Amino acid sequence: MSEERTYPDYLQKAAMYDLLAQFYKYSFPNLHMHYYLKHIQYMNKAMNFMRTNPQPVQGEATIRVLHTSPDSPNVDIYIDGHRVIRGLPFNNVSSYLSLKAGKHHIDIYPAGNMVDSVLNKKITVEPGNSYTLATIDTVKKMRLLVFQNKPAVPANESKVRFINLSPDTPPLDIAVKDRDVVFPKVSYKQATDYLGLTPMTVDLEIREADTKNVLLPMSRVQFLPNESYTIVFVGLTNNEPAFQFIKIKD
């Protein structure tokens, strides 16, 4: 995986090059210009980082909800008694919501029906963190999984992780088409680490683990610069809705 840099990292580099530029300002003009341009380069990287990675308000976290329960209807999401998401369909993810850090109560109901909830759960969120809350399993046994997102990406790079939320699939090998496995044996409810990438368009395939049996081809998957992605496998291999994937920007 590529090393992630943060806003303070870029500022620290910029400050170091500014000091060197000032040191050589009169004695070695060429070195002065060299380090001054380095200073400008890292200041630009810091500004680009802040543009592409907006930071949560201090004391707050951000969450989004991903609906992957294959047989459940559209759902309404309530947090601490207030409806915050209306009619979220299967295979869809909500926009981000801001929450105060701490404990919160999640209730999920069939859309438009606040009589019989299908899930109740307490969650705890930390300040400055970002989370995906995923509904899984059947509507009668629905559960909620919490995954922490890491949207920060080094300038002009990309990254991706994979989550297996298809309840009837065997463990999965995630591979480049006709080539090596990138992540082996990804089981149900498992999230991989993030993989740092050079921005690219690539053909992937999802195989039954330890076999050449391709369960899902993924043609021309695009990873853009300065973006972090989560790819989620949902649906069913032996029933409807069909086994499929969702590509989500973090």
Write the layout of secondary structure elements.
Blueprint: H1 7-23, H2 29-52, E1 60-67, E2 75-79, E3 82-88, E4 92-93, E5 97-100, E6 102-110, E7 119-125, E8 130-136, E9 143-149, E10 158-164, E11 172-176, E12 181-186, E13 195-197, E14 200-208, E15 214-223, E16 227-234, E17 244-249
Parallel strand pairs: 1-8, 10-16
Antiparallel strand pairs: 1-4, 1-5, 2-3, 2-6, 6-7, 8-9, 10-13, 11-12, 11-14, 14-15, 16-17
Number of helices: 2
Shape: flat
CATH architectural designation of the largest domain: Sandwich
Unreliable sequence segments: none
Taking all Cα atoms into account, the compactness measure Rg is 22 Å
Give a written overview of the molecule.
- The protein has 250 residues and is an alpha+beta fold.
- It has two helices and 17 strands.
- The chain folds into three domains: 7-52; 55-149, Sandwich (Immunoglobulin-like), CATH 2.60.40; 152-250, Immunoglobulin-like (Sandwich), CATH 2.60.40.
- The chain has helices at 7-23, 29-52, and strands spanning 60-67, 75-79, 82-88, 92-93, 97-100, 102-110, 119-125, 130-136, 143-149, 158-164, 172-176, 181-186, 195-197, 200-208, 214-223, 227-234, 244-249.
- Strands 1, 4, 5, 8 and 9 form a five-stranded mixed β-sheet that branches.
- It is flat.
- The mean pLDDT is 90.
Short description:
The chain has two helices and 17 strands. By secondary structure, the protein is an alpha+beta fold. The strands form four sheets. Strands 1, 4, 5, 8 and 9 form a five-stranded mixed sheet that branches. A four-stranded antiparallel sheet has the order 3-2-6-7, with no helix packed on it.
